[in-house]
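Reopening: structure tokens for the uridine-diphosphate-N-acetylglucosamine complex, inputs below.
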Amino acid sequence: MCQAHPTTPVAGHTGGVTPELPDECCITVRHTGPLHGEVVVPGAKNSVLKLMAASLLADGAYELTNVPAIVDVSIMADLLRAIGVRVWLDEPGIVTIINTGKLTPVAPFELVERIRASINVLGPLLARCGHVRLSMPGGDDFGTRPIDMHIAGLEAMGATFRFGDDYVEAVAERLHGAEITFDFPSVGATENLVTAAVFAKGVTTIHNAAREPEIIDLCEFLVAMGAQIDGAGTSTLRIRGVERDQMHACEHETVPDRIQAATYIAACAVAGGELELLNAKPAHMQMALSRFSDMGMEFEQLPYGLRVTAPDRLRSADIATLPYPGIATDYKPVIIAMLSVAEGVAIVTENLYPGRFRYLDELVRLGADIRLDGHHAIVRGVPRLVGAQVVSHDIRAGAAMVVAGLAAEGTTTITGVHHIDRGYDDLVGRLSAVGADITRHEP
Ligand code: UD1
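Re-run output (same inputs, fresh job):
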């Protein structure tokens, strides 16, 4: 049972009444504001998991810093351990990895099904061991997430695939360079092909590659390990294969998490006030910041981060998700939470994951006026939301409910907290420290 003090059981909206808490871990948020203070933006989940997977490529002792304290890092650590790597998470913010080269290139189902990033061991294991077997990837539940581009790219480099009911197996004695053009700049496929190409014979060129800051971070990590990569951050990546003994372990600081940064911007936007986001990198989120400015937010770049100031009331602005440098699909749930209380009507278009609107029903339970039309959400801002019990079905949806809860009268109770824990490093503690009325309740 949660350790809080339930009073009156309620059905539906809970404005003004403290609701009975569910019999599982939950977060309660009450309308608060304005927020004031500093938030340290942690390292990026979508980078550190790939860095950890890339450590499979070369023997030695690695130290990754600025590592967020999130569940997905522990799952990736377990996955690496199952493959034969030693991993320590004892010190806050640091992952230590020792790869002795005694690897079993098999990724077990019970770990792979838990995080999408487990697909990132495919490229390194194939390049390093010449074969790999892994279960089909899991991760957030937002529609089918195919890996056809990963497979076609690796086949072009000489890999042969075999497919079982719930696994993929790939073999390649030594991969060779190839010219690969993606139909779409897939983040995961770019990462897998880059890591596979570091030992390939000859040059691999990836056209229409993903350009995300996390891809640049991975390429910088690989170059520090001895890889030869040009074009990181552009649409054309060129990887000249090196011999296995030319790659070695290294130390690396994980890039700050632009999605967590945007979540604190959204919290400030709906609650009001002013926050300093320490370590935030505005250059990595320019398109999103420009749209937030259209909504009335003010930003000042600081030597050590970003100052964010909220208007009295947000204005609506249309949003379309696109690959980087466009507005990331991962920002969208917290942006919709902002738009739910903005003045005016906005159309939000999802161009990456058609199914990624599942959380809208929950925002509607909080009083948001949202209509779904295909891959567009039409959001009509209301002055105030109303607290209710809602459930988070994925990482960013959970964050959106926390943000919405800050703008809702009464108490918002969020379950499905394990999803939030997968990607947010102490969201509750960080928001609470800047004035939010938010509490985590353990069962
Ligand atoms: C990564 C992020 C995820 C983010 C997404 C897009 C991680 C762990 N996850 O996911 O948070 O939302 O980038 O920014 O870093 N696709 C195919 N075939 C493929 C690969 C992808 O059709 O072989 C499609 C996907 O179904 C999706 C789109 O391409 O519609 C984007 O996928 P991709 O960029 O690969 O995202 P992920 O790497 O899975």
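Residues 45 and 423 are 6 Å apart (CA to CA). The chain is about 30% helix and 25% strand. Marking as resolved unless the reporter disagrees.
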